[in-house]
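[job 4417] fold queue: 2 targets
>>> target A
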Amino acid sequence: MILKSLRKLAAAVAIGIAAFSIATPAVVLAQEAPATETAAAPAEKKADAHGGGKDKTLIDYYRLGGWVMHVIAAASIFMVWFTVDGFIKTSNGKVYPPASVEALRNFFRAGDYVGAYNFAKTHPCPVCDVVRAGIAYCPDGKTMTEEAMLSELDRVKAGFDARISYLSVIGVCAPMIGLTGTVTGMMGAFDALGKSGAGDAGALAGHIGEVLVATGSGLFVAIPAFITYYLLRNRVTKMMHDLQELAASLFRNMPYEELAGTHIGDEEIYAAKPVWAEATTAPAGESTPAA
């Protein structure tokens, strides 16, 4: 019940962030200020053209930020996607589903390791993958079994790290994208200053506004991306410890001696006797190759 509530809350937050990031025109920063139509001078008309006569809405700020706002908006959407996906994929119900854990425990209690292997193979999830790798190497002894499970744990962790690392990439790139908008905005500001001097304050203010909006938008995306990345990284670390403890509890007192020489599962064993060992057992009268 708590997990479902958290999922609903995360979805609601994600929708809110996405709506804010893509600058939905329906959301406004303030109501338009009342203005009286008078015979305006040319300078006043220019100020109105740059939005000086009214409070700006989000869509106005989005347009003011320039072309980099499209890239930042796309980055914000990806940030929301990887955030929601990361929290769902690392939830307890996905990593070690209670039904799968209880089924594996019942197989181990009954000593049905073939059944446990088949169940783990037909119900893929991190805990089943780790247990399946351990069962497959049980005939090779305790050391090989533990190494196989640790290797599988590393593979699972690498998969999660690869997904959440995109949040770190977004956190690093978003300010750089905003800085690109800062550079282009300053170029436009100096260009306007060189053409018309300080007299055209409206054009100069528009380019300076582009600089500030682009920089602020990049930080607005980067900060939550970094926070979410470290939260998910710590979550994955704890999840790996829980998986290792769960697997260790299942394989405690495993009868490795009784399983020695058997073959559990359908994984092919590639290593065979060396060819020279087979040659030494050749029938009498046949020559054997020199070493």
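>>> target B
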Amino acid sequence: MNKFAPGFLVGAATAAHQVEGNNIHSDYWLQEHMPHSSFTEPSGIACDHYNRYEEDIAMMAKAGLNAYRFSVEWARIEPEEGHFNEEEIAHYKDVIACCKKHGVEPVVTLMHFTSPAWLISKGGWEAESTIEYFRRYASYVTEQLGSELHYICTINEANMGLQLAAIAKRFQMMAEQAAKKAASADAKSAEGTVQVGMNFQKMMENMKFAAMENAQAFGTPQPQIFVSSRTPEGDILVMRAHQAAKEAIKAVHPNIKVGLTLSLHDHQALPGGESFAAAAWDEEFAHYLPYIQGNDFLGVQNYTRSLYGPQGQLPAPEGSELTQMDYEFYPQGLEHVIRKVAEDFHGELMVTENGIATADDSRRVAFIDTAVAGVQSCIADGLPVKGYFYWSLMDNFEWQKGFAMQFGLVAVDRSTMQRIPKSSLEYLGSAAG
């Protein structure tokens, strides 16, 4: 594999809730422990990264990676409204110092899906008040950590709510129109069209219990967590929260580069599917341009492609290789998405997530090889791509799907927490300049 130029960020990514463990003040923790949870299992100690981050960062550096994208956990830092936990912010200072010690550039995300439970009780991600709460949190984190940071992602996959709304609508239609056996088969296929671990089938089965249990946990039968199906108003509210956070960050440290990340598919039209592909791209990317065009960078997150025909979205082609997430194996999609984004977004680009869930690490190596070559082709053509972060550093807690999805460059023994590097870790590290 060809090396990137010196200074290009080659790293791996994680999210706090998925790796740290014991995120007890978060909305997800409450949902995981409901009697009729849609989660296959609770996160528990996850990968115990909260206690083992030094080992994990040293392991990345030894393999050649020079950057680490991770999230700080809002629910740890502000476990109660207006109360900032100094011990927890000190923990993240230590994580950043550890990165610097090992020559690893820290790229911090402020909000990677999980929120404090108290925020959800106050209306969550459909409430106007969340904008100011997020601004205050962003200001505090930047005051405490910003002197050591060059990049901050405000919100991970800020467009996820609309994607989930579309998928939930499809599931509802299937539940109403199909027999249970047929609906189950279609449901598995549909879960592979959204770039996050969700159990829609189980969610539909649990609907009659969810309202009561949510009311007990959050004081409302329909809590608006970040990965709830978003209304059009809530969709824009997320963008306004991002803008407020960006203002707060710049007020404290003007030189920090600020952006957000978007979940983007490589939308491809077969004859007759052009209008569907165009509409999907507009919903996923183009309509956000007025809110992100002034950002310093955009985090591009891609895992696969979506195909469209005259009747709309199509399943993966017959006989194609599927990942554990039921995505089509299609690493070429990353290059296509970068080029498409660069037509309209004029800041720096960062691949903040790209990866594959598979038990076969040779397929991960092949995926990385093609994806990285695509990024290098974009750079050769003058596109301002500044980094590539593989998802994920470790096999971790893939949200509602639990620990079964193997995205990691490193395996984790669930009984001992021992880290077992895979060949793909050093292979990715060999690309660093």
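[job 4417] complete. Note on B: The mean pLDDT is 93.
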